[in-house]
Give the backbone structure.
Amino acid sequence: MKVKVVGGGLAGCEAAYHLLKAGMAVDMYEMRPYKNTPAHSTAGLAELVCSNSLKSTTEDSAQGVLKFEMRTLDSLVLKVAEETSVPAGAALAVDRALFSSAIETKLNTFSKFSLHRSEVDTIEPYSIIATGPLTSDAMTSSILKFTGTGNLSFYDAAAPIIEFASVDMTKAFYGARYNKGDADYLNCPMSKEEYDLFYNALINAERVKLKDFEKGDLFEGCMPIEIMASRGYDAMRFGPLRPVGLSNSLDKRPFAVVQLRKEDKAGNLYNIVGFQTNLTFPAQRSVFAHIPALANAEYARYGVMHRNTYLNAPNVLNYGIQAKTNPHVFFAGQITGVEGYMESALSGILSAINMIRLLKGHELVTPPIDTLSGALCEYLSNPTTNFQPMRVSFGLLPEIEVKHKAARKLAYATRARESILKFASSIAGI
């Protein structure tokens, strides 16, 4: 049986991998470079647009537990991410170019995999639609007709990437907060006077003007730095610029600290952490130059903001991420209403598992609700008057009555790990 996977992002690649492992033939359709998006810069599969970080690996964190669950389900994205990782403290970050190339190479090792570089604007049976938050207008129109309901949109922003050689290392230092873990982040401290200059320049800087049809709500989890600054003088200092736990001989008590994170294994490129932005390119150069260590920074990529499109999942999807209007069509990735790289990849795994089960005549499945995977599926299926994209969190899980926060997190993590292992065993061989 041949399955059509529309979209070559994280979810589409993950879905294709699991289908291929099960012996299915896969036709993947990716419109780039035939047709580009406002945010992508390459034609590579699984290109990471906003950041190179796949978040925490800490065992008792929600993201760490999600990675355990995905590893248990044999995630291609996680496997390749670990192979192409760059230092990022307690987070998993990757060399974007190596990561994308390795994903594509792995899929091409399967003889039943075919990659087509063309746009798809229709939805056919036995398809997994993983077109992502930047779905083309033509495909968006088809999805609206197919689902018979409206969709929502929000805005997402990407941070600038600078060249390491242009950082003034006399005004920056490597270090981890409270000296915990490896000193993988490059810290750029500011005094109060320097912060004042930066803050005033930022809130008054020129922003890219949005077209009327693009205007919408900003997603809180990926807020542009200038929007955060406009909410109050100290907003950034309690967010990505918080100086707590960071000090060195350059400035014993910095007023604010901008952190940089490696983008590539060679350490030639660094991401300005938390600096998603919709400033014009000239404004980015002039405003961020107020950060002393970045006064002469050279940009490999400027920050951008773009539209994200997603479905009102509870209205159009069944619990197994299956379309309510056609049982032979599944959706995956951010278009389903999940938010985050790993969450998107996870949905690709689950959509493939259920497509395989459908084709083999088995009932659809989702992980138990006491796993983060299952809890996220439950969230997507719960009707709400204001459905919004969601990342995994322990708050999605059935409550455990443990008083102390640290013990409660460990209890959630332990229960989820045990539950996902049983689930994986129950579906093995199908």
About this structure: The chain has a mean pLDDT of 90. Residues 160-302 form a domain with the Elongation Factor Tu (Ef-tu); domain 3 fold (CATH 2.40.30.260). Residues 3 and 26 are 5 Å apart (CA to CA).
